[in-house]
Each structure stands twice: as structure tokens, then as C-alpha cells.
Amino acid sequence: MFKSSLLTALCCAVALYSVQTTATQLNKKIEDILNSEHRSVEHKARDNYRHPADVIQFFNIQPSSTVLEVWPGNGWYSEILAPYLKDNGQLVAATFGLNNQNSDDKRLAFWSKIALEYREKMSDQALYGSVLFTEFEPPEQIDIADVDSIDIAIIVRTLHIWDEVGQMQQGLESVYKALKPGGVLGIIQHRSTQYSDFSSSAPEGYLAENYVIKAAENAGFKLVETSEINANNADTKDHPKGVYTLPPTLAMGAMDKEKYLAIGESDRMTLKFVKQ
């Protein structure tokens, strides 16, 4: 009996040591990426507001995961995720549509420019590995990735754009189809102070947390956890140009610039859902 108990205790200790060692190794890997020279000084300065190491841990992104990043913009998160996934995982980047450079819609034209620049940047396979690119431009292009192919999808500071043009539900449903059963949807979004089920501030960048949760649940997701890692209590959310007043955009230019820099980036919800 004594030998059996001792053996059990030793096995548990070895297992615990293995878990702790693995966590330490992952933290070191993320830290090395965050401090790498491939990231600009401007991008590194945002770590204090965006908490990438905590986000990766909260969404349980492993080096072997297949991760879908929706509308990665200029690649702030991709610069971290792609090297992290390069050896054993896969980054799938669903960019803006590519064929709107000459569109009369200045926003679509700008987004195509951003998408093309992003793809050029992420084509450095020595640094980022083989990133898989798709296009996502609802309502025309909604096949965001192969059905049931994604372990974890992240949508960062994007839902207000979908909501503004009436495409949030369709977008979330497209992500739902792409995720494997049991797959994780991670949402980080500017958070308003509203408490109703209706959104009225999407053009200003903010959405109510319960509104976002309800939309995701309507798409089939189940909320499993929330986090305050991206909260900012200094954000009063009543700025002249909404969230764009704050850094990094600073839409007011020099007017009250120091005030908005002191506030920092927006207050953000961080939500984790699973595909049921």
C-alpha cells in the first residue's frame, strides 16, 4: 500500500513538473517573439494595452493550433501568432477583399490596399512560415475557411464594422462553420457602457458586451468565459470621434492629444466562446 501510494505521488509530481515546464517553455517562446526585432517600436508599445501573452493564454492558443485571424489589418497580432505557430501549427488569415483598389468606396479601396500590403509582409516564410490566406468580404465572399477546419478563431476590434453595415450575424455564422466542433471563438471588442440588447454606437467603434454575446449565441456559440485583461477603466467612452479619438488613431490630431494619450487605448471586452 505504501509503495503504491508513493508511486502515485511520484507520478503526479512528474506530471505536474511536465505541465509547469511546458508552460514555462511556452511563456519563454511568446516573450522571445514579443521582444523580437521584427516587431516595430510602435507595435511593441501597444503590448501594454493589448496584453498579447495573456490573450494567447486565455484563448488557449497552442503552438500546434490551427488559428483563424479574421481581418488582421496590418498584422499586429499576426506578427506574434505566425512565428508562434510556424513550426507545428497553422495561421489562416482572412483578409479584406483584394479587388477593390479602384472602388469608388474609399473605405473598400483602402482596405484592399491594406490587404495587399499585409499579404506581401506575411509572405516572409522564414519568419512567419506558410500563412494560408483567404478573403472575407460579406455578403459576396463569406467562405472564410474550410468547414470544420479551425481550432481557434479570433476577431479583434472588428465587430463594430460588421454591425455598422448589418453583417455581424452573417460574419459570426461564417466563422461558426469554419470552426471544428468544440472549437474556440475569441472576441476582443471596444466595449460601450450600454446595457440594452440594442447597439447604437457601432459607427463610433463601441458595442455593448451583452449585445455581442447575444449575437454570438444566435450564431450557435456558447459563452464559456470572459476576461478583463483588456479593460481600461480610464476610457469614458464619450469622446468626440468615438474610439478613434484614442490611440493609436488619435483622430483629433493635436487637439487634446496628451489627454487622450493619458487615457490610453479603449476599454475592451474579451470573450471566449465554443462551437457546440
Descriptive overview:
The chain has 276 residues and is an alpha/beta fold. The chain folds into 2 domains: 1-35; 41-275, Vaccinia Virus protein VP39 (Rossmann fold, 3-Layer(aba) Sandwich), CATH 3.40.50.150. 40% of the residues lie in helices and 18% in strands. The chain has 11 helices and 7 strands. It has helices at 2-34, 41-45, 47-50, 52-58, 78-85, 106-121, 125-128, 159-164, 168-178, 209-218, 257-263; strands at 66-70, 90-95, 132-135, 150-156, 179-190, 221-227, 268-275. A 7-stranded mixed sheet has the order 3-2-1-4-5-7-6, sandwiched between helices. Helix 5 links the parallel strand 1 and strand 2 (90-95). Helix 1 (2-34) packs across helix 5. Residues 196-200 have low confidence and may be disordered.
Helix run count: 11
**Radius of gyration, Cα only, in angstroms?**
20 Å
CATH level 1 name of the largest domain: Alpha Beta
Instruction: Kindly give the count of domains.
Output: 2
Strand content: 15-25%
CATH 4th-level superfamily of the largest domain:
Vaccinia Virus protein VP39
Order of helices and strands: HHHHEHEHHEEHHEHEHE
Oligomer: single chain
Which outline best applies? globular
Report the mean per-residue pLDDT as an integer: 90
DSSP E strands, number = 7
Please give the largest β-sheet.
7 strands, mixed
N-to-C CA distance: 44 Å
Structural class: alpha/beta
Identify the CATH architecture of the largest domain: 3-Layer(aba) Sandwich
In terms of per-residue confidence, which ranges show pLDDT below 50 for 5 or more consecutive residues? 196-200
What name does the CATH topology of the largest domain carry? Rossmann fold
Strand order of the largest sheet: 3-2-1-4-5-7-6
Can you give the helix content as a percent range? 40-55%
